[in-house]
Amino acid sequence: MNADRLLDAYVADVVAYLPRDQRADLALELRGLLADELAGARAAADGLPDEQVALDMLRAFGRPADVAARYAPAGVVVVPPDPVSLRAAVVGGAVVAGIVSLATALREGGEALLVLQRFWYGTVTLSLLWGGLFAGGLAVARWARGRWPSGAEWRPRVPRERFNRVGGAVGLAAAAVGTFVLIRPDLMLDVLFGGRAAPAAYAAFEYDPGFLRWGAPAILAVLGAELVFLGYLVVRGRWDDRSRRVDIWLTVVLTAVMAAVLVAGPVYRARPTDDVVKFALLMFVILGVVDLVQKLRRARGRVELT
Amino acid sequence: MGVEGAFDKLELELRRGVVVLAALSQLGTFRYGYELRRSLADRGMPIEEGTLYPLLRRLESQGVLVSEWRTDEGSPRRYYTLSAEGRVLYRKLADAWRGLHQTVDQLLEGGPS
């Protein structure tokens, strides 16, 4: 990454922490000031590579979060900003806690009031637990930054414009196989056991009729869209604004469908299989929410620097 | 912490206290951030860029400075100068500084050798 790209990446990281309406103006000013500083630093550098001069200068300028805190108007930054958005983490954690609690309450059954009570207590308890863990994690991260400052130094992110075609093709093949296995789990058993799997194994992978009515078609439709999109990226070889928007929407829809399947009822007839799949679905929903928060944050931080 | 370490820290605190006044003193006419920093450094008052540039924005948001974009030397730059209220504030701060300086000087006269 050359020096100019380093400056762009740094400015984008700084303004991502600031209110949206201040970003373009501040990005333009900061970019110009850093270019001036770099010109001065180049003159003083004793034969160091340009990129190294720029990186040293930017690291001396400060961590983007700290610089943003200095730029933020009074009252905007209540606590020093951290790489993970506090609000997104708290809201996301509460949503996941709600989904988990609802799924558990529905599974345990009983009268409507009892289910509601379990759902409410579960949500509150898990949200508080998550809040405590998150706050503890932030405190540990802050202590680690102070203890090992070099580990907290700013590092430029790898630009996301290029799409890794080889990795994408491997992912596409794996996703296609995975989707096929979801459609025909019996064939997977035939391949694994040479057609001699026990009848109980086939029974373990028998879908619930309720899931087959709406959950399965919905999941298949979204997975099909994901496959087509992945194929498009493999052919195209790069990201653009439209493909990023499509990516975000697909993540929203897939996460929402998985969350709906999670709480709607059994996926498999056999309880043990269903429990394992529900746990996997829960993990996918959590990962989907985290992935979505990161994608939205990147999209909001992307500022045109002209 | 040794004496040298304590000195560095306390001297930094002293400098921090006068950063705003030093910056305001050089903004009687329009200047952009890098030019101001060089000017202060050349006069023996180096201020870290990560401190000075955000300070200019904050002072502007408080009405002490006004700014405008200029492109007369190539790339666009934001130039800052004192606002009318900023000039009043600067004079008051300068008077306060001179008074404080005099008082501390007198105290130092009678201090330990």
From TrEMBL, chain A:
Highest taxon of the lineage: Bacteria
Transmembrane helix is among the record's keywords: yes
Residue intervals passing through the bilayer: 88-107, 119-141, 162-183, 214-235, 247-270, 276-293
UniProt keyword terms in alphabetical order: Membrane, Transmembrane, Transmembrane helix
Organism ancestry: Bacteria, Bacillati, Actinomycetota, Actinomycetes, Micromonosporales
Protein name according to UniProt: DUF1700 domain-containing protein
